[in-house]
Amino acid sequence: MTFQEGGSFNSGRVGTRSGAGRGLAIGGGGIGAALVALVIVLLTHGQADPTQLLQGAGGQETEGTVGQCSAEQANTDRTCRLSATIDSLDTVWGPTMQQEGAEVPAVWSFKDSTDTGCGQASAASGPFYCPDDKSIYLDTSFFDDLTTQLGAEGGPLAEEYVVAHEYGHHIQQVTGVMARANRGGTGASSDSVRVELQADCLAGVWAGKAASTVDPDTGVTYLKPITHQQLETALDAAAAVGDDHIQAQSGAGVNPDSFTHGTSAQRQRWFTKGYQGKSIASCDTFSASSL
Ligand SMILES: [Zn+2]
Question: Where primarily located (predicted)?
Answer without folding.
Answer: membrane
